[in-house]
Specification:
This protein has 11 helices and no strands. The chain is mainly alpha-helical and about 220 residues long. α1 (about 5-45) crosses α3 (about 65-80). It starts with a helix and ends with a helix.
Length: about 220
């Protein structure tokens, strides 16, 4: 039986297209997930450059997911690629506005870059969008407010946060620092004492409590 060459060619093309569809439709997401998981593992080991390679692959294979952008942004920050890190956090927010890491990480980085006005605006936008903002996001907002000199309102926000999260040792620590800056030694001692009670192994907390106690 003789096969028409044109039919054979069409059949070969259909097979090739089917293989491409299979590769990118089925294998692609699995490869993206594998690269993402490997990137997380390498980042945990602080092998930043290797982690970035894996997360670059994860992003290339799955541009619709926010998580790889958030994790790559964290890695880029560790590599001092801050502009690119902010771009990744922004892309994560575009893809999934409900995912709060994209907001919180950007706020934290802006504060580290001494850009408190931008950090405050971004954190306020995030808190407005999220009825139940994560602690990290609220703390970022408070730190931005304090960095701009609005210490009293920052303390008031910390009190509201502590009222619903009495186990938040970082909130007590920041509260202690603000009271110390305001010259309120007794309140600073109380806040630092609470932070140490909640996280007794934290050297910064213990040192701050001791410094105020010896004043």
């Amino acid at each position: 039986m003789t096969i028409n060459p044109r039919i054979a060619a069409l059949g070969g093309l259909a097979l090739a297209l089917g293989l491409v569809a299979f590769t990118f439709g089925w294998v692609g997401p699995f490869r993206a997930e594998a690269s993402f998981r490997r990137g997380l593992e390498l980042a945990h080991q602080k092998r930043w450059r290797e982690a970035r390679i894996q997360l670059d692959r994860a992003v290339a294979l799955d541009r619709a997911s926010a998580a790889p952008y958030v994790e790559r942004g964290r890695v880029l920050r560790s590599l001092d690629r801050t502009t690119e890190a902010l771009e990744d956090f922004a892309r994560a927010r575009e893809l999934d506005p409900k995912r709060q890491e994209g907001w919180a990480e950007a706020v934290d980085l802006l504060l580290a870059l001494d850009r408190p006005e931008e950090a405050l605006a971004l954190s306020q936008d995030a808190i407005t969008r999220h009825p139940a903002p994560d602690v990290e996001l609220v703390l970022g907002h408070i730190r931005a407010r304090a960095a701009l000199g609005d210490l009293r309102n920052a303390v008031a926000e910390l009190d509201r946060l502590i009222a619903r999260r009495e186990d938040c040792h970082e909130a007590f620590y920041i509260k202690g620092r603000l009271h110390r800056e305001l010259g309120e030694r007794t309140l600073a001692l109380s806040a630092f004492g609470a932070a140490v009670a909640l996280a007794p192994r934290n050297a910064d907390y213990r040192r701050s409590l001791e410094d105020v106690a010896w004043q």
